[in-house]
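Sequence design from tokenized structure. All designs in this work follow the same two-part layout: the structure record, then the generated sequence. An example of the structure record is given first.
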């Protein structure tokens, strides 16, 4: 990571997964963005990002790969021709717990 071209205003909100949103980098020429995730604050490994966006227009990602009840931490990096920024400030959210289906439902005539 080098340079200060990173996107800002990273946020993570619980929904049907975790919706991660951000503001694009103001640096011209961004060729890709890296979204990195960890279960430990400061532990994001952007050498193996959760998602790579090969553009400078994406501003949201719905993370549907988490485990219910687990808190995830996210950072974002912006890259220009393979040179990537320092990571953004961290954002976090708890992955939603999806209720189990009802069981034992019965119907009988009266």
């Amino acid at each position: 990571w080098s340079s200060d071209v990173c996107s800002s205003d990273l946020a993570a909100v619980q929904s049907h997964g975790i919706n991660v949103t951000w503001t694009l980098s103001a640096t011209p020429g961004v060729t890709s963005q890296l979204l990195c995730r960890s279960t430990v604050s400061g532990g994001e490994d952007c050498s193996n990002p959760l998602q790579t966006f090969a553009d400078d227009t994406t501003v949201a990602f719905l993370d549907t790969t988490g485990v219910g009840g687990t808190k995830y931490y996210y950072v974002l990096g912006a890259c220009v021709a393979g040179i990537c920024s320092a990571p953004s400030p961290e954002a976090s959210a708890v992955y939603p717990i999806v209720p189990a289906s009802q069981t034992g439902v019965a119907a009988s005539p009266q």
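Confidence is low (pLDDT under 50) at residues 1-7. We note this feature because it recurs in several other targets discussed in the main text.
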